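Sharing in case it's useful to others searching the archive later.

Someone asked me privately for the predicted structure of Methylmalonyl-CoA epimerase, so I'm posting the question and my answer publicly. Question first, with the sequence:
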Amino acid sequence: MAFTFKKIDHVGVCVADIDQAAENYLSALGLVAVDRELVASQKTDVCFLRFPDGGGDASVELISPQGNDGLEKFLTKRGAGLHHVAFEVEDIVQALAELKEKGVALIDETPRIGARGHKVAFIHPKAMGGVLVELVQH
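And my answer, the predicted C-alpha cells:
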C-alpha cells in the first residue's frame, strides 16, 4: 500500500446516554475523559476517554446521537455497543484514492471534518466483514 497506517486511533462505542456511559467507564476502568464536544456536522455528542497513565495513544470514543439518524437506527436495532474502529493514516486523501482504486466500498470518497477537527472518512462495513472502519488524519 502506498498510504501509511500509523496506529489504532480509537474505538467508537455508540451509547444513548453519554454521561451515564462515561461514568461507567470512569468508575469501572479508571479511564479519564480527555475531550468532549458536540460535533454539529455529524449530529453527535462525543466524549474521548483514555487511561490516566497514558496507556498508549488509543482512546475510547463514546458517541451519542443528537439527531443522527444512522446512530439512532444503530441503537434501536442493536442497542449500545461497539460502533467502529478508527485507524490513523498519514494521508487520508491518498488512502481513500487507493482504496477506491482497489474497489473497496467506501461510505466517504472524500474526507470530512469530524471530532477534534480531524479529517475522517468511513469504509463501508460490507468491505470489512461487517465492521465499520473509520480513517482519521490528525
